[in-house]
Amino acid sequence: MLRLTDYARVINKCSHCGYCQATCPVYLEDMLESHVARARLNLINAALIEKTMPVTPRVKEIVNRCLLCTNCTRNCSSMVPCDDIITAARIELAAESGAVDSLKKFVMRKVLNQRGLAGVLTKAGSVAQKLNITSMEMPTLASVTFDRQVSGTVAAQGEKRARVAYFVGCGTNFLFPDTGSAVVKVLAYNGVEVVIPAGIVCCGIPSLAEGDLEGAQESMRTNIEILAGLDVDAIVTDCTSCGMAFKTKAAKLYPENDPLQEKIKLVSEKFWEATDHLNNLGLAVEPGEMAGKFTYHEPCHRGWSLTVDEAPRRLLASIPGAELSEMEEPGRCCGAAGTFYLEHRELAEKIRSHKLEDIKETGAEKVVTQCPVCRFYLGVQLKEQKVMHPLGYLAAAYGL
Ligand code: SF4
Ligand code: SF4
Fold first, then answer.
1. Structural domain contains residue 122
2. pTM score of the predicted model
3. Spatial CB neighbours of 100, under 8 Å, sequence gap ≥ 6
4. Cβ(40) to ligand 2 under 6 A?
5. pLDDT tens digits, residue range 61-110?
6. Shared domain check, 297 and 267
7. Is the pLDDT of residue 127 over 80?
8. Residue 126 domain-assigned?
9. 193 CA distance to ligand 1 centroid (A)?
10. In angstroms, what is the span from residue 76 Cα to ligand 2's centroid?
């Protein structure tokens, strides 16, 4: 479980090799050893596990100045779950001080976890104003959310090849309903029956990042109870962070003996990113010609599938005329990380600047990526390139 006491032994597995240094976006900007995962772990161990030093404001800053990008975990030579330990530290700090900001808690619990509330979007706007978030940094909320556009079951076209449940994350529901439509259309066009379950809420990742374990538990429980009861071959999402939540975080939200664990296992085993799932299934219909260069930004939260970063490259390469122009560092973080970019604006902008340069160097007209927050944060600055989900790109090639 995401409790620091459960990590007391594993935290000492860190060999101080330093492999986590070269891929930490925060270290690469700050160039401070205290911001590398190994140093963060040492500090968490001393201040919060062994309690041999006080929890100073600097300790809190180091725990919070982290994107939870998972780069350190994915590159750790000793398989230390660094991002989980940092998350557990945030949970402990929040519990000790009641530090989860009440406005943020409102957004997480009410806006993300209770989608059906009337007028909730208006409330989100007023919260944004109170937080002094400018319009440029706050994405425009869709006038009609995805769950009000599409519901129920969308039939497969032609021969039915699979039946999937579509977990629609908050990014797609509130910000990019067009991505949701593209996913449904492309899947159905390729012989996949798509079930859009009613009552789905946030995956819980935003709550976890704030140290709000209870909020994450609440929303995950709701989702698992719904998804576990569906008769489907697979569960797909278009968001890599939502996928990570179900695949690698859900089981850690509850004690090992919690009765929900069995259902979590069932759901987690069926989880795929939609592009990845379609790539495995293979296209039933050849896409039409769509000449142009695209580049692919690998979202940080990709470690839960071995093929989630290969799938868009392969699928889109099958579009006649489409040319993949690779970035020098396609896996480098864009700096957004949920609400991190709002709270660490200067740092996030510095991290993003490398990505923007890299994108421009490719000469691509389109940037594809499966993370809605990356799409928003990059799109704010990219005026000449269109940023889209891979299945949005494929939908255009199909003329859907
Ligand atoms: S999760 Fe990302 S930002 Fe945080 S310490 Fe690890 S590599 Fe650095
Ligand atoms: S890569 Fe893992 S083992 Fe090596 S220093 Fe970083 S956290 Fe420690």
1. no
2. 0.93
3. 94, 210, 211, 212
4. no
5. 999 999 999 999 999 999 999 999 999 999 999 998 765 555 566 655 65
6. no
7. no
8. no
9. 38
10. 5
